[in-house]
Amino acid sequence: MFIKKIIQSNAYVNIIAALLLSVTFILAFSSMLGDSATMDELAHIPAGYSYVSQKDYRINPEHPPLIKDIAALPLLTQKLNFPNQCPCWTKEVNSQWWLGNEFLYHSGNNPDRIIPLARTPMIIVLIILGISIFIFAKKFFGPEVALLSLFLFSFSPNLIAHGRLVTTDIGAALGFLIATFFWLIFLKNPSKKNIVLAGITFGIAMLMKFSLILLLPFFAIITFIWPLLKNRRRGWKSSFLSLSKYIILALVIMAIGAIFVIWPIYQINMLHYPIARQASDTKTLLKSNSLTPLKNLCIWMAQKPIFRPFAHYLLGLLMATQRTVTGNTSYFMGMVSASGWWYYFPTVFALKVPLPLQILLLIALLSMAYLIKSPFWIKPWERLLEWSEKHFIELSLLIAIVIYWGVSISGHLNIGIRHILPTFPPLYILGSLGIIIWIHSIKKENFRKIAISLIIILLIWYASSSLLTWPYYLSYFNEIGGGVKNGYKYVVDSNYDWGQDLKRLKNWVDENHIDKIYVDYFGGGDTKYYLGSKWKPWTGTNPAKDFPKGNYLAVSATLLQGGMGNPVPGFNQPNGYYLWLKNYKPIARAGTSIFIYYIQ
Question: Domains of the chain: which residue ranges?
């Protein structure tokens, strides 16, 4: 009764939501302070600063600018030295890693001040994502679903992990959700206001991450389905006219997004990017691209002042698409490959998503299936159409998840669960909806109390697993995955070790009065900057016999596992170069991800 009164009070609902968001902010902000720069931040932070300070978009075009712009805005309050005389800026083409190292560690700037400043707006983006989940669920499904969805968001170790970093992944989740929200509102009520809002949010989503180009087939499918469902009893003529209207309005929305959002944002970021330099860079970056017609179009537009912003957008899209197709060298379940595995994302989801959430999602799925009263073979088509019309929002979210997961599974970019984060908010909302429907469907009071008790236990387990992970959210694995200490045995890279523990290695070296340590580090930090003369370089591919005995060796988990994994057939890169370390046990770890050995 007490809970019912709270749910019925809009003020209480909003207060609880604010408290949950405050917890998320505290967990994210406090846990990011001890992390050194991760791999992609080495490129994204300097790139963003170059956009807002130099108005030049020559660095990191394979990612849209908006998230990097937002991260860089606080840096304008600092007196920073930008290495605009370095060959990495003046001569090289997209030499983002060199420029990042110069800007953060070798230009007289303080990286330990720059990095937290740039990360703080990302945490705000994370909080806006939480607010968006709450608003979405509340508008379409009510306050109970909204609060449960927000709870799942607030303690999500994977969203917290990447919501503290200057990368495009949380921005992609936000863009995906808000664009979907306003597109659904437009479909329900195609007013001028809703058309404009859908266009603006569509454009914003396109500026978050290039993977959100998947919104195009998603929106095309639901825009086709909705008028047919709505007019299915009025005959084909009415359905055709309604569909034609929606198609025209959808094209108008996309035009609004392109002309009034994408074009001006790109134009602002490119004001001082010489047109000749852009054309030259574009030719170089697309030299190996196999999509010849689009490549030629991009090069042609890069030379035309009015089309330059669209050319640079297309350049980034082509670069991102090619990377997804070609893949990255990665370690997975004892194997090393450059072509990926189709079952990578389902496996990583099973290992890195909290078990109580997976149980909740399973309960939601089973309860929804159970509530289908008649056998599925009785008038299945008619029942499917009727359900789709009544539950169009749920259908749309399911379609979004299927499209995003389908493309991710078929691609070859197997370097982190972060690449499917845009599907997490729809999963939270649908899962919460299923749980609430299940509880309300139970007629007997005693059984309902048992169900509520079960849900509460799962939610306590869920929140506890997140709180106990602090501050090592990037290395989170559930109980099946062995927790934060053992997850590296299954997958690494941004799933576990992205370079976040370099400052913790420095602290260990200082606390143990180590005078010399060999380091093979993976990440966005600079080993020499933090360890100074104590650092000695070591590359894992060096012969083991060359390592000087009687010394310390620190190895990042990503490099360690990559050097121990079994190569898949056809893999022709160096492998097996760290198998010799199986004869030694680590004497310590820096954080979770850097293993420290003493080699005798």
Answer: 1-167, 275-326, 344-469, 493-599
